[in-house]
Amino acid sequence: MGESKEILVFFESFSDLPDPRRSQGQRHKLLEILFIALSAVLCGADEFTEMEEFGQSRENWLREYLELPHGIPSHDTFGRVFALLQPAAFEESFLRWVKQMVELNPKEVVAIDGKTVRRSHDRGREAIHVVSAWARENRLTLGEVKVSDKSNEIRAVPQLLKLLELKNCIVTADAMNCQKEIASKVREAQADYVLSLKENHPTLYKEVERVFEAVEEERTSGFTISRTSTLDKEHGRIEERRYCQINAPDYLYGYKEWADLKSIGMVEAEREVEGTITVEKRYYLSSLAVDAEVFSRAARGHWSIENSCHWILDVVFGEDDSRVRAGHAAENLARLRKIANNLLQHDKSVKRGVKTKRFKAALDHSYLLKVLKT
């Protein structure tokens, strides 16, 4: 495959990926198909026809790294390969690639959240829903698991946690995934958790709410209390977030059933937009010791998966508009987009957003190569 191993860890990580096609009549190598597809997506391609067009336009450049014995694959070939490719095997290669790409720092915030690929539904089949893990500081997806049909996120998250190396990280999750089993799995992974608590645990929620009311009114004693705050001003919006964290009292409902529960937290967000002020309070369960600075970074960091991953996939990569549905193609393309987003987010040589980086990659061979070598 020419100089490919010299330019991309991708080839080594995906070299063991089983080819789902019959060996007879294969005109194009699997890794070459994936490399062209990834390069095309980095440069703005969202559909299989655009992958073929990219390959035809960049064939001379691609031949510097690929053999291409039968030229550029057709859009039908791209579609067939992505429909047949086993998602579990693709995910295993993806995880191997991520592990070679980055080493997580202690206290890295890893946000767990789900996303539906809205137009991937078909007759008799619901749209696919994928749960992902996003590393805030490294700005990349660590792994993902498709939610099985007739199942839900709560069952998929423990599967995802088993796949990841999370030692010393802080795992965050929304209220849907504020579950005792998930807390236990996080601790088994030697990580800490910060889980958003809402009325899906009504008794515990009310108790935590009352404890913080007592703290605010100074009607408590014997608590370790830590506070901090942040202030954001942009686009006519002023938002102050006040964070309060205390040690979790052992009389809380179900206290012993939450693995290593050490603290509870509150975030009070006061937002002013065009003279209108709104106030919202959110509560959290955590295995972290009381330290409002660490707690605030985790609670706020959770939303980076929405802003830097899900929003980017929808708006920049057009994921929600994709009508790809055949076989496993929707799930595999979703993973390929995350690989592209990881590479673009990880590149620090251009101080621009992902959309502009895709445009630059399409214009500049040297920049595309730099991103691929990240």
Summarize the structure.
This protein is of the alpha+beta class and 374 residues long. It has helices spanning 4-7, 9-13, 30-42, 48-57, 59-62, 75-84, 87-101, 153-163, 180-188, 202-216, 292-301, 304-315, 329-346, 354-363, 365-372, and strands spanning 109-116, 129-135, 140-146, 170-173, 192-197, 225-234, 237-247, 263-273, 276-286.
Just name the CATH architecture of the domain at 196-290. Roll
Number of helices: 15
SS-based structural class?
alpha+beta
Gap from first CA to last CA: 20 Å
The global form is: elongated
Give the biggest sheet: 9 strands, mixed
Identify the CATH class of the domain at 196-290. Alpha Beta
Largest sheet: spatial strand order: 3-2-1-4-5-9-8-7-6
| Proportion of strand residues | 15-25%
Helix content: 40-55%
Output the radius of gyration: 23 Å
The overall average pLDDT, rounded, is 90
Low-confidence runs: 1-6
How many DSSP-defined strands?
A: 9
Order of helices and strands: HHHHHHHEEEHEHEHEEEEHHHHH
CATH fold category name of the domain at 196-290: Nuclear Transport Factor 2, Chain: A
